[in-house]
Amino acid sequence: MGLTNKTLGELLEYMNSERLKLPEIQREFVWTRKSIKLLFDSLYRGLPIGQMLVWKPKEVIPISKGFSGKLNKHHPSKIDHFYGYLLDGQQRLTAISRVLDDDDDYPLMMNCFPEKGEWEETFFWSRGQTNNNSWHLQV
């Protein structure tokens, strides 16, 4: 067993290319919007968000599922094109993926110039009137 460092970008790419799968034991995506907002706030502030645990088997196991909201198009037939099974970190990785993929259910915005009062939070969920404010950027 070894330790490998990967960036979030690399893990998201493995997820999108279906080289990273979920084992059948994983639950569905259940995080609330508040949890997602707090995750992005932690990332923005450079706080640790925990490690992700990936199991790299010696051979591909045909029973697996895709990430929530992602179709499981095929099972990899060759182990050399397969990264592994995500055992811990699915909620975090799925949350990041949904926001970055412009999922209509997760329109997270960043306030570049927060003021005291209504917009004191750095991250918030989009509402129609916020889209025209030049200080509000979609994540």
Q: What would you note in describing this structure?
A:
The protein has two domains: 8-102, no CATH class; 107-139, no CATH class. It has three helices and seven strands. It has 139 residues and is of the alpha+beta class. It starts with 7 loop residues before the first helix and ends with a strand. A four-stranded mixed sheet has the order 2-4-1-3. The longest helix has 13 residues, at 33-45. The chain has helices spanning 8-16, 33-45, 90-100, and strands at 20-23, 53-55, 64-65, 84-88, 108-111, 123-125, 136-138.
Helices and strands, with pairings:
Blueprint: H1 8-16, E1 20-23, H2 33-45, E2 53-55, E3 64-65, E4 84-88, H3 90-100, E5 108-111, E6 123-125, E7 136-138
Parallel strand pairs: 1-4
Antiparallel strand pairs: 1-3, 2-4, 5-6, 5-7
Count of all domains: 2
Q: Assign a percent range to the helix content.
A: 10-25%
Low-pLDDT stretches are: none
Strand order of the largest sheet: 2-4-1-3
Class based on secondary structure composition and strand pairing:
alpha+beta
Distance between the termini: 36 Å
Note the total helix count: 3
| Global morphology | elongated
